[in-house]
Amino acid sequence: MTQIAFLGLGNMGGPMAANLVAAGHAVTGFDLMPDALAAARTAGVTVADSAEAAVTGAEIVVTMLPAGRHVLSVYEAVLPTVAVGALMIDCSTIDVASARVAHGKAAAQGLASLDAPVSGGVGGAKAATLTFMAGGSPDAFARAEPVLATMGRKAVHCGEAGAGQAAKICNNMILGISMIGVAEAFVLAEKLGLSHQALFDVASTSSGQCWSLTTYCPVPGPVPASPANNDYKPGFAAALMLKDLRLAQEAAAGAGAATPLGAQAEAIYAAFAAAGQGGTDFSGIIRHLREAGRD
Ligand code: NAD
Questions:
Q1: pLDDT tens digits, residue range 245-267?
Q2: Is 168 part of the annotated catalytic residue set?
């Protein structure tokens, strides 16, 4: 049993903390939202009055917060209270630069740290099937592995500080671009009188094959479990895809990488979100492309 503090008990953090409790760990949690605290208490999390109180005595501190500024302000508040030798694991999806600053703040207090964003969404958080992509020292990763294994199915050590966030935004940039590509192909097929099933049967066994097509098909029918069959309820909301594409563009600008399709994908999802569709599953971008074709 490990004494774990869990800060940020929202859609992802709530079920992740519940899985740590179910595995027999002593979990003390904190969130700003009373509803999140109530749900965590029901799941067996000991609820603290503040983030500082939650981390007192913790061997491991897990954060699952919205963005870099939240992680840095929470680190600022709690690091002086965290016991020397404890391990900080940030599972939030944040910008690479903030992740590196967070590692630096932890190191300055004598603490080991890992950036360990996840893939797998709320379903994966509930079912403990998340994939973690981690950045930090090999020693920090080795210490985190047993805890990550109770919240997910796979953990990949991607490299030093910030490498987990880098892997996450690179993967999601591929995903955003490929979803738009698959959706464009279906819209073109519709205009050309080709059935959804015919395009699927060909492309899913040809060189157009990809996850956005075969697992998450953006038209109803060929892949019954995809959100297209459920009126594009997320799944993975377009607003979150836009967040990740923005992080990728920030990182690309900072690193001097040419990512023209990533930039275009960000602009397309930004227009979709501006049209009030941020809460729609990201595969619903096909509706936006159909509309654009009517101009
Ligand atoms: P969420 O908004 O449901 O949860 C975030 C929680 O953090 C909220 O409950 C909020 O009250 C809490 N919080 C904010 N500031 C705080 C503070 N100072 N102290 C304590 N709690 C604080 O968001 P989520 O969907 O759980 O996502 C969390 C992170 O995981 C994000 O970085 C997101 O990009 C990433 N992520 C989400 C998904 C998904 O499908 N939802 C998938 C992969 C990664």
A1: 999 999 999 999 999 999 999 99
A2: yes
